[in-house]
Amino acid sequence: MRGGNKDNHPASLHIALVTDAWEPQVNGVVHSLGHVCSILRARGDRITVIHPGLFRTVPCPTYAEIRLAVTTPRRVGRMIEDAAPDVVHVSTEGPLGRSARHHCRKVGRGFTTSYHTRFPEYVNARFPIPKAWLYRIVRRFHNDGLGCMVATASLRDELKARGFDNLMHWPRGVDADRFKPAKEKSCHFKRPIFLNVGRVAVEKNIEAFASLDVPGTKVVVGDGPALEQLKDAFPDVRFLGQKRGVELSRAYAEADVFVFPSLTDTFGNVLLEAMASGLPVAAYPVTGPKDVVLDPRAGVLDEDLQRAALAALELKAEDARAYALTYSWENSARIFRDNILQANGLAASP
């Protein structure tokens, strides 16, 4: 760590980031961490990422696309100490995250964490394990750190009620140059086009979207373990598979409304991508949407998802985009860094 300024913020920082979610995985965790790492490196910070690609891996049960590292706390600890970082951030609760936590506690090294995924709900949806047991494990994991970053105020309140300590706000951002409205919509699908983008898995509640009785065409962009089952169950829905880069941006821009049926997301980066693309959002009024879609001109939240989807058709694309532009990855990266500094006693409290 070199230099500093009058606010006691180090001019440069070396962060060891330990994460079980990293490329080539495609999800909100990887998306968020990738943007933040790029921005912080561009401003002069150094980030050493300890990720599954550095280890032998095995497929995650029920979700083979996700590879889990096979390792030990000793090996992960040695990688952390060899890197000699100023601070450690443990992003996930998987094998790497748990190994890093074990090592940091053993040697007395402080670390921060972030709560990206409703791990108890996701496991409970696949296996008959009580959520209360799972929350006890996850709470202990995060409370051992100096601070736990959460994306929204409602998630912070929910976790606080469950006994989580030292919660810090860390919002996300959107690349508004990449995700933007199309000058002309040329898609041949019957309009209006209702779109969902994300992981095709049981916890995403895509059945609620696929079951809607709405005019036009329902489109799902994404891949996951439930894809083939949903294709068979809903032949009227267009399942386009996973898309990246320009193809993904175009898929957003060609649609008319973005429908987000998930009841378990902690934020929902796709909400910002959709609004930046000029798509009003239709979603349930739950954690994630109710924190992100705060302007009624940008989306409709309703316990009746069909009613929300039809009402969102009446909203204006320019209003949705204008609201999305209030979010930026630069601000997200700044807050992430400030949280780490404050938790480690390296920055003056605001």
Write the layout of secondary structure elements.
Layout: E1 14-18, H1 28-42, E2 46-50, E3 57-60, E4 63-69, H2 73-83, E5 87-90, H3 95-107, E6 112-114, H4 119-124, H5 131-143, E7 147-150, H6 153-161, E8 167-169, E9 193-197, H7 206-210, E10 217-221, H8 227-233, E11 238-241, H9 245-254, E12 257-260, H10 269-276, E13 281-283, H11 289-292, E14 299-301, H12 305-312, H13 317-324, H14 329-343
Parallel strand pairs: 1-2, 1-5, 5-6, 6-7, 7-8, 9-10, 9-12, 10-11, 12-13, 13-14
Antiparallel strand pairs: 3-4
Structure, described:
The protein starts with 13 loop residues before the first strand and ends in a 7-residue tail after the last helix. Helix 10 (269-276) links the parallel strand 12 and strand 13. The longest helix has 15 residues, at 28-42. The chain has 350 residues and is an alpha/beta fold. The strands form 3 sheets. A 6-stranded parallel beta sheet has the order 2-1-5-6-7-8, sandwiched between helices. Strands 11-10-9-12-13-14 form a 6-stranded parallel beta sheet, sandwiched between helices. Strands 3-4 form a two-stranded antiparallel sheet. Helix content is 38%, strand content 17%. The chain has 2 domains: 14-173 and 329-343, Glycogen Phosphorylase B (Rossmann fold, 3-Layer(aba) Sandwich); 193-324, Glycogen Phosphorylase B (Rossmann fold), CATH 3.40.50.2000. It contains 14 helices and 14 strands. It has helices at 28-42, 73-83, 95-107, 119-124, 131-143, 153-161, 206-210, 227-233, 245-254, 269-276, 289-292, 305-312, 317-324, 329-343, and strands spanning 14-18, 46-50, 57-60, 63-69, 87-90, 112-114, 147-150, 167-169, 193-197, 217-221, 238-241, 257-260, 281-283, 299-301.
